[in-house]
Amino acid sequence: MYKQLIDKLEKQHALSKDEYLTLIKNRDKCREYISERASFVRNKVYSNKVFIRGLIEISNYCKNDCYYCGIRRSNANVSRYRLSEDEIISCADEGYKLGFRTFVLQGGEDSHFTDEVLCRVISEIKSRHPDCAVTLSLGERSYESYKALREAGADRYLLRHETADCEHYAKLHPKEMDFFTRIRCIEDLKSLGYQAGVGFMVGSPYQTLENLADEMLFLIQTKPQMVGIGPFISHSDTPFKDKESGTAELTTFMLSLIRLTLPDVLLPATTALGTIDPMGREKGIMAGANVLMPNLSPVAVRKKYELYDNKICTGEEAAQCIECLKNRVKTTGCEITIDRGDYKYEI
Ligand code: 5AD
Ligand code: FES
Asked: Which residue, 345, 53, 50, is CA-closest to 193?
């Protein structure tokens, strides 16, 4: 019966909420089959190629206070940093030599990074490396700001919605943060022609399996080009320090559901997945993921960008991570490729 549901999903790219829920509840009975089908679909669309994105963590200052996040403004134990424009550009230059053709500028919501500063950095990276894509992951901004950054050359934007349920959203965030603002931002990004990424944590506090089924309906409705998911991992300096972390097994199952629902989607096996399970990223690729986002930030600041406890790869040079990842990816039957790794279709 589960096999039939998975076959139906592979054919139709959608199930009802109840059907998704049935699969999620009974995932132990169909884990292998769904991984096999999701890998098949990934290979059909992107062959066995895994795209890499160089992640540059430009600032750990953040005006927000999300209950789950280690760099929330109330965490006085964080040693705050922001990279200079030259440092960001040097990271990209180094990444280019290592074979990266996408750079992701990620940071907390830091008012230092005005449109003016960001536009300068984006256009400099794009003029030095015209064959590269620039992805931003800098939180909520105004339509005008997203527009200016897009005009400066940004190609993609990651803004996880965190949960598709506005009541659940309110349990993860302080009251000044609003689910509908988040959705407005995602709509703005899409309308400006960004390749847009959404996403959520698996096993976040108060999340139910029904919420996860709703996530799938949200993705069908939103049609993002990228989806970032990873297990929630508790951080010891946050209000959620005693909450249970998510698991690799549920995260990889959700990755397969996403691949079968959105066959063309760019889907990372995240660092959080590699943190909760030493083989997490390999398992993610075998479950249908096709993107890895190794860290290109200067090693000196790596440990300071701790969204969750025990984050991996905070001591390694980017070159070391690349070597390590090449070997890891090989064990999955896939291979890393030097490519911008755009979404398959015009958007
Ligand atoms: N565990 C896992 N993921 C987290 N994020 C933030 N804090 C945590 C945590 N404790 C994720 C959020 C955010 C992304 C940048 O990192 O989903 O959107
Ligand atoms: Fe960073 Fe393995 S990916 S050390």
From this structure: 345
